[in-house]
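Here is the promised in-class demo. Please do not try to memorize the tokens; focus on the logic of going from shape to residues.
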């Protein structure tokens, strides 16, 4: 005999819902408690988000963001295609977490040659998702709550928020411009540290200094004397040096890039950061690296394995083949490391002439993709606004992209909040562009000049 079936599951759930006193109001209740971590306070704004949107909306010519609009070298594209389409299907899978073996081998060989020491590819090199992640790993690995980190202004804008996210305290020291008295163009070399001022920033709380040579945004290549000053203070106070050298191959006018890790007493305390994006004109591939002693890199590996863990295998394979080719042609005319800076120097000189012709005063960069220009003579176009909290160069750059269709970045974006108005009459241009792009920029500038001079 069959027993009578009990209440249905639907009936049971409806009774339970009713007895719990649920209502449509409670189902729609929103979470009200703060959810974001305190370490994110004050670092939510980002200059690139704002200006990339402006450039996409208004600009005819974008000389703001730092990426080439010309193709990478054929040998690198061919290497990528081989890696992607070749017979080694394992290149589509995970590789070694801390760097694809062929790539770390090439990096150890090259940087061992440049630094004059034998490097172990497994312990002295770590591959990251671009130099950006390398910087993040450094700050997370070494900076504790209350540690001070010296940052040289103007600085690449991520340094400050990354230090703060790690619990550190940024301490800023400026490069101060010393214009030449002969009326010539100012050079990025004319932006200099005051030795006494720099020394005064070191204290018992100082954990690290961030060095960026060649410097973004100025294009300054620190001289041996300047690097020795920094190195002596690092050794004296026993602190780390995080050396961002992503533009190491983009040096002009016969200048020399000196790696601070090669100076006496610095290898053991320096983390040298590089970028395939800047080296081979492939910023979208996001392949970077850190070179340094194992006693430091072991801590970066801990951060890396517990965050990103792994970088794209195919991109690493292609970059490894690119470096293998460059090692074969090192110092020869066929080397991309020689060809690229020659091409960029010509583009730099072209943009300098265009800016000078309309009354902007360019500072001649010794390296990088960038130059800054003094816009003081354009205040008749964009007058000062008394009492405005926004730096003048920021308002000028926004006005220029909206009214002239030309995008650039205000120099104040590369200063801390307290110092944004110290050098607020400069804007940064990127000249790593096709000739057609630079010509279009020149056309805008020439038209602007005619408008200014017409009765």
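The designed amino acids, position by position:
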């Amino acid at each position: 005999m069959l027993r009578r079936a009990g209440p249905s599951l639907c009936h049971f759930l409806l009774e339970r819902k009713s007895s719990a006193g649920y209502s449509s109001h409670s189902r729609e209740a929103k979470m009200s408690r703060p959810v974001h971590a305190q370490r994110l306070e004050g670092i939510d704004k980002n200059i690139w988000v704002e200006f990339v949107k402006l450039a996409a909306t208004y600009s005819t010519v974008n000389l703001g963001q730092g990426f080439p609009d010309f193709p990478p070298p054929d040998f690198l594209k061919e290497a990528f295609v081989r890696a992607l389409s070749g017979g080694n299907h394992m290149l589509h899978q995970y590789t070694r977490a801390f760097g694809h073996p062929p790539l770390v081998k090439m990096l150890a060989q090259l940087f061992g040659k440049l630094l004059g020491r034998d490097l172990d590819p497994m312990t002295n090199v770590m591959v990251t998702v671009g130099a950006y992640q390398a910087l993040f790993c450094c700050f997370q690995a070494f900076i504790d709550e209350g540690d001070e980190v010296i940052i040289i202004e103007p600085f690449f804008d991520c340094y400050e928020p990354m230090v703060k996210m790690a619990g550190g305290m940024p301490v800023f020291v400026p490069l101060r411009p010393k214009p030449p008295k002969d009326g010539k163009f100012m050079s990025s070399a004319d932006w200099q540290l005051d030795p006494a001022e720099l020394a005064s920033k070191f204290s018992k709380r100082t954990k690290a200094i961030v060095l960026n040579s060649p410097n973004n945004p100025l294009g300054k290549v620190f001289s041996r004397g300047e690097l020795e000053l920094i190195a002596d203070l690092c050794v004296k106070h026993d602190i780390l040096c995080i050396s961002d050298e992503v533009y190491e191959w983009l040096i002009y006018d016969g200048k020399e890039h000196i790696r601070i890790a090669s100076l006496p007493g610095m290898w053991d305390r320096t983390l040298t950061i590089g970028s395939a994006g800047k080296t081979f004109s492939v910023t979208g591939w996001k392949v970077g690296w850190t070179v340094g002693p194992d006693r430091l890199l072991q801590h970066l590996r801990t951060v890396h394995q517990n965050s990103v863990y792994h970088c794209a295998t195919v991109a690493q394979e292609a970059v490894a083949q690119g470096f293998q080719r460059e090692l074969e042609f090192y110092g020869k005319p066929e080397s991309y490391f020689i060809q690229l800076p020659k091409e960029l120097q010509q583009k730099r000189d072209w943009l300098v002439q265009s800016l000078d012709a309309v009354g902007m005063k360019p500072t001649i960069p010794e390296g990088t993709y960038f130059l800054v220009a003094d816009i003081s003579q354009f205040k008749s176009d964009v007058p000062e606004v008394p009492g405005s909290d926004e730096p003048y160069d920021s308002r000028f750059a926004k006005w220029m992209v909206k009214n002239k269709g030309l995008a650039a970045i205000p120099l104040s974006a590369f200063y801390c909040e307290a110092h944004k108005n110290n050098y607020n009459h400069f804007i940064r241009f990127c000249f790593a562009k096709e000739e057609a792009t630079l010509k279009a920029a020149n056309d805008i500038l020439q038209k602007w000049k005619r408008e200014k001079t017409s009765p």
